[in-house]
Design goal:
mainly alpha; 3 domains; Cytochrome Bc1 Complex, Chain D, domain 2; 16 helices; 2 strands; 385 residues; elongated
Length: 385
Amino acid sequence: MSDFKSQFWSYWIAAITIGGIIYCMIILVTQIRAKTNKPGQEDLQPHVWDDDLQEYNNPMPRWWVFMFFATTIFGIAYLALYPGLGAYKGLRNWTSANEYEIEKKEFSDKAAPLYAQFLKTPIPELAENPEAMKLGKRMFENNCAQCHGLDGKGSKGFPNLTDSDWLYGGFPKAIEVSLLGGRNGIMPSQAASLKTPGAINDVANYVLSLSSSPHDATAAARGKTSFALCATCHMPDGKGSLSDKSLANFGVGAPNLTDKTWLYGGSVKTITEGINAGRNNVMPAWECALGREPLYVLTAYVWQLNREEGTGKVLNPTEAPDYMVDEVNKRIAGLDAQRAAAKETGQSTCLATSLHETIRKQNELAAAKALKEIVPATPAANAKP
C-alpha cells in the first residue's frame, strides 16, 4: 500500500474496510433488536423455500452473538496495531519485509556455526556429507530448479548439470565463481557477416559435421571457410573456449561443437536460428541473495550431481586443469580484491563480484565516454575569446 503514488487509493481502501465493519455491526445490532417470538412460542415465518422449508422466528443464539462481537473487536484491534487500512502502518509499524529480514537474520545467526564448519571442508569431502547435501538440495530446489530442473538435467537453453559438458569448467572453483557472480554467455548474430541464407545454411551444416551429426556434406564443405567467424570463440577445431590453452577465451563460455551435447538442439533449424539471431544466456548472481557461505554448500551439491551410474562416483574434476590453475587463482584473488575495495568504500561487497553489475558499470562508463566525445566541453565563463 505504501507504494501508491496517490493517497486517494489509501483512503479508498481504508474507507471500504471501516465501512464494512460498521455495516456488519449495524446488521448485528438491528437483528438483535428485531421482534422475535417469546419463550415457548414457535410461530413460523411466512416465507418458504423449496416448496416446504420454513424457519422459526427465534432470536440468534447468544454464544453466536458474543462470538461475532468478539471477532469484530479483534478485527478493530488488529487494524489498529498492524497494516490493513491503506497506507497506515499500524501502531507496531510492522511490515512483512521487516519480518522477513528479522527471520532471515535469526536463521543466519543459528546457521553461521554450521556453515563455518562446512567452509573448512574441501568440496569433494563436503559433497559426501549428508547434512550438507540436504541443505544444498533444498537451496537448489528453491533457487536453481526453475531453470535446471529438480534433477539438474536442464532443458532447452538451460545447461544439464549432471553430465561432463561444462561451458565454464566443472571443477569446484569454476562452479563457485558462476554461482557467486553469475554468467552472461553471448553469441552475436552472424547474419550480417554471412549475408545470405545459403551461406548460413552451409555453416550450420559444417557445425553439424564437427560432431558427425546428420548433415549435408556438400553444404558443410562450402561452410568450412566461413566457420572462421565462429572459430574466434569456438576455436578452429570447434572444441570450445575451454580447450584454448592460451586462455585467450577463458570465461567466454563458447560450447564444444564436436560432441553431441546441444543447448538449444542439434538440428539444422536450431543452429541456423542461433547463427541468424544470436544467443544471449544469463544466469543471475546469487551471492547477494543467498550469501557466500551457503553458496559454498550449493557449489558442492551442484558439483556432485554428475555421478557415474552404478558406482556413484563423481565424474567432475576436483581441481582446474593444469593450464588453468594460475589463471583461476588470479581471478579468485581479483574477486577478493573487488570485495575488499567495495567494503572500504561502503558499497555492497556481494555486488562487487557480480558479473552483471560489472557489465552495467562498464556500459555506464562507455556511455559517459561516448557522450563526452560527442558533446564538447562548455567553455568557462571567464575564458578569453
